[in-house]
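Final report, Chapter 2: Outcomes

The project's central promise was a pipeline that accepts a single protein chain and returns its three-dimensional structure in a standardized token representation, suitable for archiving and comparison. That pipeline is now operational. To close this chapter, we reproduce one record exactly as it appears in the project archive, with the input sequence first and the structure output second.
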Amino acid sequence: MTDETFAKSSPRHHGHHHWRRDLVELAALFTAVAAADAVANTVAHGPDGPALLVSSAAALLATAGFHTWWSRRRGHTPPPPAAEAADAGAAPARTTDAAPSDGDTTLWRMRTTVRDEVGSLAALCLALAECRVDILALQTHPLADGTVDELLLRAPAALAPAELTRAAARGGGRETWLERADAHDLVDAPTRILGLATRTALDAAELPLALRQLLGRCTIHSIPARSPHTGALAEAVPEEGVWEETVLRLRDPSGGSITIERPYLPFTPTEFARARALVELDARLGPRVPPRRDVLTLPEGNEITVRRADAADLGPARAMHDRCSNATLNRRYHGPVTDADRYLRHLLSPRFGRTLAAYTASGRLVALGHLLWDGNETEVALLVEDDWQRRGVGGELLRRLIAMAGEAGCESVYAVTTASNTGMVGAMRALGLPLDYQIEEGTLVITARLAAVPAAARPTSATVRRVSDN
């Protein structure tokens, strides 16, 4: 309620107002009587008294007629917005320079820290309301010395981000962080967290992606218990995890640890607890991959089965390695493989990405395709047994890996190869996506920017038959 509205509704102010009005009306009455007496004396004793009275009457009639005409003309003109608000009993709206004329709005996510005391949230809301900002959702994260309020805001499109930050400061907010939001953020927090838990329960590879969506823009590193390259043991993480302001470290149920970094915004105890809950859910459910598989009939007539791979495929993968030539292995790993068993364990772990396996009708593994999470980037890699190269197997795996990357929200994927690896270069070009090429010290890096249409929707030269194990 504004001060102006309060003054109009106060009984004490109404009493003083009526008393002053009575005195003014009484003084006006005395003045009118004196004026009438003076006019009467002038008319009665003057030679032109009757003419003066007639002229006065005509002037009064003309004035009354003009007032009636003007009032009717004004009655057809709509009142201004301020007048309409006053007639409705509302206080006049406080305008700002940033109010847009076309009504366009923008969604923002704001996080600010306020004092943990009565009225602090109300002061923040009032400061935002002065800028015509609508609060669509609110989450609170209690701290030892205050409360972090996370708000989803709808603000006028013309309102600059600096104005929003200043409004939060006027409302008592500090350490304010602001970023653009979209329609996906309109889902309330419990619904979003339940959705992430469901995805994690269905697929063990979803845990890193679920953590990233839960905590916003952050970098997630899955660190194996033993390095696949050197065999060195990684630093152990306590069972309860570690919270260090902008870094969270959690024990990975499949071995090793998960490190989450967000340098621009410290984590809160609430976020740490939610991340731990997702990891504990994954630990209780154990290893799991979706049971879906596709049976492909290649142009030459052979059938292969494509499905998700995990640690259970380590034996067939090791046997395929033994059948591959050194040239094939060098193109895939960019050098000799000293310990294929340890390296394949790393690749087949769902923590580091997703792997597709291609099996023949006789049950022989002939190709592996990897989609590897590399911090904020995503790498794609293929290994096809020599006898099955240039028969369309690698292209089918790559197309499905790109579709998975799009479903995971990746904006681009990259492949590391050599210019002489024409098979990989041709498979990337066959995707029909915008490609960027970069050559560094004889190594070719091909980056594909994912288009709006997922790769799974593009035509394929193979006949696909989808099978579910359920």
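Archive annotation: The first helix runs from residue 3 to 8.
This record, like all others produced under the grant, will remain available to the consortium after the project formally closes.
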